[in-house]
Amino acid sequence: MPRKKSPHLASGPPGLPRGARRGRLALPAGLSAGLGYDAVGMSADHGKRVMDRLPRIGCIFACDDQWWWIVPAGSHIGLVWPAVTSYSIGAYVGSASGPRGARAPRNLRLVHHPEDDSPYTPPIPLYFMACHIAGVMPCWSVTD
């Protein structure tokens, strides 16, 4: 049975239109991403609310008005991330202005550097906070 995909996925370079460019978020030196990494995007306003409430926070990048949280690769599997988020497989992000993915990231900066050597924000608490902010019930599947 084919795996369900979230309608809010942003694919990496293979899925981009010809001529489109998106940059991959580069982790700061010294951080180990042995599990690979993806990124969960949300508005800066939502990001600030989430950041104040999570007990452990990994790398967070800002690109234009969007904040991108680094999560382990595959954190979208079995979950339907709410519409207030964007999920980027491989952490490829582009500018929010213009056609989707048509420009490389600009105004990219690191908002938060983790205290330890792990770049990850735990995806399940992040998912529950995103659902809370969106006003939707969390929805996951264990049969995917």
Short summary:
By secondary structure, the chain is an alpha+beta fold. The chain contains 2 helices and 8 strands. The strands form 2 sheets. It has a 6-stranded mixed sheet with strand order 1-6-3-5-4-8.
**How far apart are the termini?**
8 Å
Task: Tell me the strand percentage band.
Answer: 15-25%
Query: Which regions have little confidence, pLDDT < 50, spanning 5+ residues?
Result: 1-21, 96-103
- Multimerization state: single chain
Q: What's the helix-strand series?
A: EEEHEEEEEH
Query: Rg from C-alpha positions?
Result: 14 Å
What does this structure look like?
- The strands form two sheets. Strands 1-6-3-5-4-8 form a six-stranded mixed beta sheet.
- It has helices at residues 44-51, 123-134; strands at residues 9-10, 23-24, 37-43, 60-63, 66-72, 86-88, 92-93, 109-112.
- It starts with 8 loop residues before the first strand and ends in a 10-residue tail after the last helix.
- The chain has 144 residues and is α+β, with helices and mostly antiparallel strands.
- The chain contains two helices and eight strands, in the order βββαβββββα.
- The longest helix is centred in the C-terminal third of the chain and has 12 residues, at 123-134.
